[in-house]
Amino acid sequence: MLQYLLHDLILLENQIPWLVLDRIFCLTDSPTETQSLIELTIEFFGNIFSSDKRSIEPHLFANQEIKHILDLLRKVIAFTIQSNGILEMPSLLIQETTETILRNLISFKQCYPNCAPRVTSYAVLLSHLINTPKDLDILCDTGIIDNWLIPEDSTKL
Prior knowledge:
- This protein is mainly alpha-helical.
- Helices cover 47% and strands 6% of the residues.
- The chain has 8 helices and 4 strands; from the N terminus they run ααααβββαααβα.
- The chain has helices at 2-9, 18-28, 37-44, 69-76, 98-111, 118-129, 133-141, 151-154, and strands at 80-81, 87-88, 92-94, 145-147.
- The strands form 2 sheets. The protein has a two-stranded antiparallel ribbon. It has a two-stranded parallel ribbon with strand order 3-4.
- A hairpin with a 5-residue loop joins strand 1 and strand 2.
- Helix 4 crosses helix 5 (98-111).
- The longest helix has 14 residues, at 98-111.
- The chain is globular and about 50 Å long.
- It starts with a helix and ends with a helix.
């Protein structure tokens, strides 16, 4: 049941402005609650991209404008280019929701042209890297991808 909620919350057409979510959160906040809305959201969606719980510092988003949940998830994806030109990216969990989240993040980029195209570029890179189950095996063996689907389904992303 929870997977359906997670799926619906990442759809672009279901996004509620962060300002509204934050206001509701503040109105319903209990005195014993110590986590912020950003912390709770990151925790809830913690394994949407990776099977390992990465340590994501919520304070990194404190001064950034967050449009909605999908925008926060877009900001959570971190890619870095090292000084020697090597692209460093977190391992990607391929599961039932992976295609939906990537498609919605790409759609979000198309609706907001000022967003950096990093998710679109990442999806294009993956589509060029994964053409056959053998390609997928290589990426899984090196820890770049954690595949929870059958290989034939994963190569269709």
